[in-house]
Specification:
The complex is a heterodimer of chains A (110) and B (114). Chain A has 110 residues and is mainly β. Chain A has strands at residues 4-7, 10-14, 19-25, 32-38, 45-50, 56-59, 62-66, 70-75, 84-91, 99-100, 104-109. In chain A, strands 2, 4, 5, 9, 10 and 11 form a 6-stranded mixed sheet that branches. The radius of gyration of chain A is 13 Å and the shape is globular. Chain A starts with a strand and ends with a strand. Classes of the chains: A mainly beta (110), B mainly beta (114).
Chain lengths: 110, 114
């Protein structure tokens, strides 16, 4: 059973068309939730860490929010250069490693 | 901005051969990790390393795998007797304080076993 589920698997947007990506988790005792961006053939690039419900972080056109069961990555007025796979990962407790979801592949069309 | 450096970027090896994947973590980071990503699948944890020893490992990280920090800067992943299913992107990552902080990942080594 997956602990981290991301939806949708793929999302195609027109340039300027805002939307949200979802990351839901089924575990309790979340210590932190991480968002990464991954370009094809590259390593994940760190975007945000969220630690508690209600927390929000912003970076350029991206805004990440966290509730007790899920996180959203909102993308406002996306540009083609925002096209990438967005990964969500959770840190559960102590020394357990980050557990990643399968990602959402975002394509932004000019 | 500090980077995690991985070499080689691409390695092709014959089935049954041994490979060593190399990583130079960020210099003041204390925790080191190896993850892999099979094409089209999610990023999977292999092993974490702290204070010159393994702190956590996954079921994937069996006797075929080993890690080493041979000097103050390098961190290596050795895969013995490679199999076709070992073909994947292997990512090294480091963090300054441990699991609760964002890891910095390298660009990866694409391992192809033929």
């Amino acid at each position: 059973e997956d602990q981290v589920t991301q939806s949708p698997e793929a999302l195609r947007l027109q340039e300027g068309e805002s939307s949200s990506l979802n990351c839901s988790y089924t575990v309790s005792g979340l210590r932190g939730l991480f968002w990464y961006r991954q370009d094809p053939g590259k390593g994940p690039e760190f975007l945000f860490t969220l630690y508690s419900a209600g927390e929000e972080k912003e970076k350029e056109r991206l805004k990440a929010t966290l509730t007790k069961k899920e996180s959203f990555l909102h993308i406002t007025a996306p540009k083609p250069e925002d096209s990438a796979t967005y990964l969500c990962a959770v840190h559960l407790s102590g020394n357990t490693p980050l557990v990643f979801g399968k990602g959402t592949r975002l394509s932004v069309i000019a | 901005e500090p980077e995690v450096t991985q070499t080689p970027s691409h390695q092709v090896t014959q089935m049954g051969q041994e490979v060593i994947l190399r990583c130079v973590p960020i210099s003041n980071h204390l925790y080191f990790y190896w993850y892999r990503q099979i094409l089209g699948q999610k990023v999977e944890f292999l092993v974490s390393f702290y204070n010159n020893e393994i702190s956590e490992k996954s079921e994937i990280f069996d006797d075929q795998f080993s890690v080493e920090r041979p000097d103050g800067s390098n961190f290596t992943l050795k895969i013995r007797s490679t199999k076709l299913e070992d073909s994947a992107m292997y990512f090294c990552a480091s963090s300054p304080e441990g699991q609760g902080y964002g890891y910095t990942f390298g660009s990866g080594t694409r391992l192809t076993v033929v």
